[in-house]
Write a structure and sequence with these properties.
Blueprint lengths: L2 H25 L8 H5 L5 H7 L9 E4 L5 E4 L5 E3 L2 H12 L3 E4 L3 H5 L12 E3 L11 E3 L2 H13 L3 E6 L14 E6 L5 H8 L2 H4 L2 E2 L5 E4 L20 E3 L4 E3 L9 H5 L5 E5 L5 H10 L15
Parallel strand pairs: 1-9, 2-13
Antiparallel strand pairs: 1-7, 2-3, 4-5, 4-6, 5-8, 7-8, 10-13, 11-12
Helix pairs in contact: 4-6
Bound molecules: iron/sulfur cluster (2 copies).
Length: 300
């Protein structure tokens, strides 16, 4: 972390602590135990403004979205096969993590009182950094408990995001010993809102899962649904002469356009021979160690 980033983080923490304690009373007992710094980024208006300015983003943050549907892998015969990317990746990181904690609720959906997606499906924190999660905020779980939580999130239509950011330090852990798995919605998730309205600095924090490429197929009827402003939070879609076109260098692979396409013309492809999980695990391994002193896959 650079000196400038440290200074920003310290200043933001001071601001957040004050604002967080001001707001704690308004949010009631159920929010009291959440760290003030986290809470303040999820307060409508104030928190969103802090998030969208990139105030709390430092150079070390990375986010990988995992589209839960419409993902295909090419086999060696050149045929597309459905691939459950989200569950496969999350199961791999969960089995590797020494500690797994499921947070009781989503602070984004709770603070905006989201009625579209469940407020009681929260993030999952993995690795040694998750050990400090207090019982008031979350539960330590084993692999099966973690995967059950993930299935519930996927069934609710939420989009998993691997988030490596300063959130991990809120519970006293080290950033390079943890990873958060957020379950984002399309309406109240701070990450998506910030991708839409935030700074370019913030948008650069979104990584692409290696080799995963958005694809518009021949079924496209140029209906225009996917390029509506409210669909793509980074404006990566335009209407070309023969089909919709996605700028893969801008797209953050959220899967929203594929979900709304009435023709099911949009999908995500993994080329033949690419071991996408191994490639992604290598990227994660370069920034964080999930095994910790307790060892890979230990129960808690
Ligand atoms: S929503 Fe589907 S059919 Fe309509 S323009 Fe987009 S890709 Fe084409
Ligand atoms: S084009 Fe936009 S809506 Fe579609 S997956 Fe990429 S970021 Fe999401």
């Amino acid at each position: 972390m650079s000196d400038e980033d440290k200074r920003e983080l310290l200043e933001a923490t001071d601001v957040a602590k004050q604002a967080g304690s001001d707001v704690a009373a308004a949010y009631g007992d159920e929010m009291q135990s959440l760290p003030a710094q986290a809470r303040v980024t999820h307060i409508p208006l104030l928190g969103h403004r802090i998030a969208t300015t990139g105030f709390l983003v430092h150079e070390d943050a990375h986010y990988w979205l995992l589209p839960p549907r419409h993902v295909y892998r090419m086999n060696d015969d050149g045929i597309r096969e459905p691939f459950d990317l989200a569950m496969t990746v999350i199961e791999a990181v969960t089995r590797k993590a020494c500690v797994k904690a499921v947070i009781h609720g989503c602070v984004c959906r709770a603070s905006f009182d989201c009625q579209n997606y469940p407020q009681d499906v929260g993030c999952m924190f993995l690795g040694e950094a998750a050990r400090g999660v207090p019982r008031e905020d979350g539960l330590m779980v084993d692999v099966e408990g973690a995967l059950e939580h993930v299935r519930r999130a996927l069934d609710a239509g939420l989009v998993p995001t691997l988030a490596w950011e300063w959130d991990m330090m809120l519970y006293g852990g080290k950033q390079n010993e943890g990873l958060a798995v957020c379950f984002c919605d399309y309406c109240h998730c701070d990450l998506r809102l910030s991708a839409r309205e935030g700074t370019e600095r913030f948008r650069r924090k979104f990584e692409s899962v290696p080799t995963l490429t958005p694809f518009v197929g021949a079924a496209c009827k140029l209906c225009g649904t996917c390029s509506r402003d409210e669909v793509c939070c980074v404006s990566a879609i335009s209407q070309g002469p023969e089909s919709a076109e996605i700028d893969a260098s801008v797209c953050i692979r959220c899967g929203r356009c594929a979900d709304v396409c009435p023709e099911e013309a949009i999908s995500f492809e993994i080329p033949a021979g690419a071991d996408v999980v191994a490639l992604l695990m290598a990227e994660l391994g370069a920034v964080t160690d999930l095994t910790g002193p307790a060892g890979e896959g230990s129960a808690s």
